[in-house]
Amino acid sequence: MCRSRLCVTCWLLLLAQATTYCLAETVYLNPARVYPGDISELVIEYDNNIPSLYALDTSVLQADFEIIDVSSRVSRLQEGNEIFHRMQWKIQILPRRTGTLLVPEIRFGDRQTPALTLEVLPPPAELLSSHEVFVTAEASPDNPYVGQQTRISVRLYHNVPLDYGSLSEPAADQTTIYRRRDEVSYEEFRNGKEFQVLQRDFALLARQPGEVILSPASYRGIIRHGEQSVGGAPAIGSRKISRSSNLLKLRVRNPPANFTGSFWLPATRLEISQNWGGDPDKLEAGAALGLTLSIVAHGLPAESLPADLLTLDSDNLRIYADRESRSTRFEGGELIGRLEQRFAVIAVRPGTIKLPDLKLPWWDTNSDNERLASIDGRTISVSDNSLIPEDEPQASQNLHPRPLSNLSGDEGRHWLGLALIASGALFAASLVLRRRISGLLTPLLHRHRIRRRLRRACLANDTKAARAALVEWGRERWPATPITGLHQIGKRIADDELVEQLARLDAALFAPSGSRWQGRRLLSRISALERQAEKPRPVPPVFLPRLYPE
């Protein structure tokens, strides 16, 4: 009887142990008192002999908090002869309202955090008057056509020094965003206060009609205070803050029904021009001329401009198009796209040839009307390069081949036509080969220019140029992903040292003008990662079957 009772007691103890969650060893909020718009950090730590980082379910926090970031790490520690591992999670939370907020329990594995309270204090008037940070966003126009540029201006206002900050960029689905490389810093008086302003401009192109809602731009950084109290409120010291801009809504319109063009080109200005590589009035049969066609559009990227516009169906003239060259730059808050394409014009037979007019309809977004960019066609007179008169007597027939100069007019023209066709085919083949070589070399040259620009910026400790070069480097490394900021690069590379260097660079962009950033460590880390990526992968051995199996 006693033995059975003892067994039941043991089973009950085991069951209670299995169903009871163990508390984590260390859980705290840093800080435990914040102002609205300030970030608090929930830190969870526990020690274990075996490293086991569990995935945290933070959905229980989303009722009263916005989850800003979740990070984790494992540290290996040794005390005496014992080795153990310390697991740590850091959850940055932004309170949604003022008052005393409950941070509920979080369960992970066989552990559970205790419930905590976060006190969100209303900011005193003295604090608001002395320290103010906010972000604004502006869109112009807010009712663009599909493919029309909308200028997005994001401005960060602050009258207090900021540290370790990052300014995220607005984004939306079914849009393409182009970022201006340089940013503008200036001073502005607003509501009787002097603010430092950091402005970034973007060009947004919507790909589909309808309502487009852009995610707000947000700034996250640190305000460093002294430890004194403000307005009788408890001293908080340094504050991690988060500030978001207003929401932007765009009403994207379809192209007008009365537009007559084959290519939808909404721009503020569009020009088309041509440049001959020689005198087209002195073209001889069998000769070739180069013709360069250029299109420059204000308010459109180069990718939107059409190529291969020059075509001709003629037995007397052949036109071969080379690969187009495109470039886009940001100037005065507006995209300027440029397309250049070279054509080879080959005269096959003598005679008068009329090149057609070149017309390109486009839509003027300033006047909301259709306009026409055109180049008038011209008449080309191709002269005969044969010096043989038509009435030259025919030479006697023999079995030996005769030189071309001794052939009759009909035979001479026959052999001349064959020679022209062969030269045209060789020229076309050279253009195709040139395209393929250009397609292989262009990415390599582009990559080399990016690396050289990044190296020059890092060695010169130029924060703005280094950030622009890094964004371009990220776009080249991940072409399928729209890289617009340093934080996107850090998320795609599992390298703690690089992430730290990117954070230092982003912080230096918002630091006071007297601070000094050194770019050599960032450059060396990027170079090390590229060398590691360029190492050839080992090729697995190939085992062939025996020729005469048993």
Structural notes for this entry:
The protein has 7 helices and 30 strands. It has 4 domains: 24-122, Immunoglobulin-like; 126-252, Immunoglobulin-like (Sandwich); 267-385, Immunoglobulin-like; 444-534, no CATH class. The strands form 8 sheets. Strands 2, 4, 5, 6, 13, 18 and 19 form a 7-stranded antiparallel beta sheet that branches. Strands 11, 12, 14, 15 and 16 form a 5-stranded antiparallel beta sheet that branches. Strands 22, 23, 24, 25 and 26 form a 5-stranded antiparallel beta sheet that branches. With 550 residues, the chain is of the alpha+beta class. The longest helix has 51 residues, at 409-459. Helix 5 runs antiparallel to helix 6 (496-510). Helices cover 23% and strands 37% of the residues. It has helices at 2-19, 125-130, 409-459, 463-477, 486-492, 496-510, 520-534, and strands at residues 22-23, 26-30, 33-34, 38-48, 65-79, 82-95, 99-103, 107-108, 111-112, 116-120, 133-140, 149-158, 162-167, 175-179, 184-190, 193-206, 210-214, 218-223, 239-244, 248-252, 266-267, 269-276, 288-298, 317-321, 325-331, 334-347, 351-354, 358-364, 369-375, 379-382. The radius of gyration is 35 Å and the shape is elongated. The relative contact order is 0.09.
Number of domains: 4
CATH level-3 fold name of the largest domain: Immunoglobulin-like
Q: So what's the CATH class of the largest domain? A: Mainly Beta
pLDDT below 50 for ≥5 consecutive residues: which ranges? 12-22, 227-234, 387-407, 541-550
Q: Could you tell me how far the N terminus lies from the C terminus, measured between alpha carbons in angstroms? A: 73 Å
The number of distinct β-strands equals: 30
What proportion of the residues form beta strands (DSSP E)?
35-45%
Q: Regarding quaternary structure, how should these chains be classified?
A: single chain
User: In CATH terms, what is the architecture of the largest domain?
Assistant: Sandwich
Compute the average pLDDT. 78
Structural class, by secondary structure, is: alpha+beta
Q: Tell me the number of helical segments per DSSP (H or I, 4 or more residues long).
A: 7
What about the largest sheet?
Answer: 7 strands, antiparallel
Shape: elongated
Task: Kindly state the percentage of residues in helix.
Answer: 10-25%
Radius of gyration in whole Å, from Cα?
Answer: 35 Å
